[in-house]
Every structure is written in structure tokens, then in C-alpha cells.
Amino acid sequence: QVHPVEAGGGLVQPGGSLTLSCSASGFFLAAYAVGWYRQVPGQEPDKVACLSSSSPDTDTFYADSVKGRSTISRDNAKNTVYLQMNSLKSEDTGVYLCAVYSGSSCTWALPQDWGQGTQVTVSS
């Protein structure tokens, strides 16, 4: 079983930026799609972004709420997936969870292994 570990959350003012990271010791992340989800209390996680490993140029997902403000990327040498978020808004607040998918595609694979999450709070 994979245990992704998220980092990079924190308190940021509206309009600010954060970069979240997701790593998985002993597991080859490069072979799998990896997604980022935001969860607020009392709700199921919402998919924010997903990066395919097989077709990263065409099989990448961004939620409408973050499109144009966020970039998901991976550094295979560091075995890490990142989510860079810019122009942050209060509605971006939540626990951000990393999910490793069951296959290489964001389209046909499903999130399978979840991290514990990192808190992002956007507030002045």
C-alpha cells in the first residue's frame, strides 16, 4: 500500500501563492496518475487537479475553480508531485489531499491511496 505524504500548506493572505508537494517513499510515483483534492468539513473531497503519467500533455485535469490559477507538475527525480496555486481566494481554504491513482490515467483510473492532507487557509 502506498502512503502519500503532503506538505506545503499554511496560512496565506488572499492573492497569495502556495506550492503543495506530494511524495511517497519507496513507491515509484512516476508510473501513476496523481491527483489533488480539497476537502472542507462535512463534505466529500473535491477533485482540484490530476496529472497523468502516460499522457501528461493531454490527460490533465483542473477544476474550473482553479483553472488558470494552478499548475500540477511532477519531478520524477524527486519522486514528488506539486500543486502550485496562485491568486488564492478564501474559497480555496480546505484540507488538500494527495491521491495516487490505480493506473497511469486521470480519465480511466481511480484514486486509490490517499494521504493525510495538508491544511490551506486563505484569510486576511
Explain what the structure shows.
The strands form two sheets. Strands 2, 4, 5, 6, 9, 10 and 11 form a seven-stranded mixed sheet that branches. A four-stranded antiparallel sheet has the order 1-3-8-7, with no helix packed on it. It is globular, with a radius of gyration of 13 Å. The chain is mostly beta strands and 124 residues long. Helix content is 0%, strand content 45%. The model has no long low-confidence stretch (mean pLDDT 96). It has strands at 5-7, 10-12, 18-23, 34-39, 46-51, 60-62, 70-75, 80-85, 94-101, 111-114, 118-122. The chain has no helices and eleven strands.
How are the SSEs placed, and which strands pair?
Elements: E1 5-7, E2 10-12, E3 18-23, E4 34-39, E5 46-51, E6 60-62, E7 70-75, E8 80-85, E9 94-101, E10 111-114, E11 118-122
Parallel strand pairs: 2-11
Antiparallel strand pairs: 1-3, 3-8, 4-5, 4-9, 5-6, 7-8, 9-10, 9-11
Notable traits:
single chain; mainly beta; seven-stranded mixed sheet
- Summarize the amount of helix as a percent range: under 10%
Low-confidence stretches: none
The multimeric state of the shown protein is: single chain
Write the element-wise H/E pattern from the N-terminal end onward. Answer: EEEEEEEEEEE
- For the terminal residues, how far apart are their CA atoms? 39 Å
Mean pLDDT: 96
Please outline the major beta sheet. Answer: 7 strands, mixed
Number of helices: 0
Structural class: mainly beta
Number of strands: 11
3D shape: globular
The radius of gyration is 13 Å
Strand content: over 45%
